[in-house]
Amino acid sequence: MSIKKTMALYRELRMDFTTCAETIYYHNDKDYIRISELVEVEFIPLGEAVTQEAMIKNLIEHREELEKETEVKFNKIDQKLQDLRALTAPEIKVA
């Protein structure tokens, strides 16, 4: 079973780049101008096993990146706590 999409090349006017996209995305977008004729493209889907394997791999990598980012943030907080605890608090005189 294949998936058919109508595609075209578009030029983005502000950032000055070319992209290929399905026509429904940029049809009425004033930031993009179509620079090619419309083309019917037939995509043949990959099997579920291939797709799932790639998704699992990407999610694991994303999770590892988030763990590293979070660890850095926790370390900064811990350092700030240590710095604050190391300060000598001013004496408060009670009358």
Give a quick precis of the structure.
This protein is of the alpha+beta class and 95 residues long.
Characteristic terms for this protein:
95 residues, alpha+beta, four-stranded antiparallel β-sheet, 2 helices
What topology does this entry show?
Elements: E1 3-12, E2 17-22, H1 23-26, E3 32-34, E4 39-43, H2 48-86
Antiparallel strand pairs: 1-2, 1-3, 1-4
| Separation, N- and C-terminal Cα atoms | 86 Å
User: What sort of overall outline do the alpha carbons produce when their principal axes are compared?
Assistant: elongated
Can you summarize the main beta sheet? 4 strands, antiparallel
Low-confidence stretches: none
Q: What structural class should be given to the helix and strand makeup? A: alpha+beta
Which bin fits the share of residues in helices?
Answer: 40-55%
Describe the model.
The chain has two helices and four strands, in the order ββαββα. Strands 1, 2, 3 and 4 form a four-stranded antiparallel sheet that branches. The model has no long low-confidence stretch (mean pLDDT 92). The chain is an alpha+beta fold and 95 residues long. The protein has helices at 23-26, 48-86, and strands at 3-12, 17-22, 32-34, 39-43. Helices cover 45% and strands 25% of the residues.
